[in-house]
Design goal:
Elements (H helix, E strand, L loop, with lengths): L2 H9 L7 H26 L4 H10 L3 H8 L5 H19 L1
């Protein structure tokens, strides 16, 4: 379910006038998506999952990960897992 689909679903219900219900539905939606991103990062590489999450969610580059967070792998390996993350995420949405 994309944000656009979420908005369409909410607009076809009585949630339009109930702000609390809209917020509750949106929170559940985003909570599920956060869990999915975390799960997929572990599937991409268990040991590098926290670095993958930081790169994906905070747009942190490999250089920053290496200098500031001491990532335990080389650039090629990291970007291989980074691309795998997006491939797995795409597959999970099908």
């Amino acid at each position: 379910l994309s944000p656009i689909d979420l908005e369409r679903a909410l607009s076809r219900t009585n949630f339009r006038d109930d702000k609390i219900a809209r917020i509750a539905v949106a929170k559940a939606y985003y909570k599920d998506n956060i869990k999915l991103v975390e799960y997929v990062s572990v599937r991409a590489d268990k040991e590098l999952s926290s670095y993958i999450l930081k790169a994906v969610t905070e747009e942190v580059s490999y250089n920053t990960l290496k200098l500031r967070y001491e990532i335990p792998c080389g650039r090629d390996m990291f970007y291989d897992r980074y691309r795998r993350f997006f491939w797995l995420l795409n597959k999970s949405r099908d």
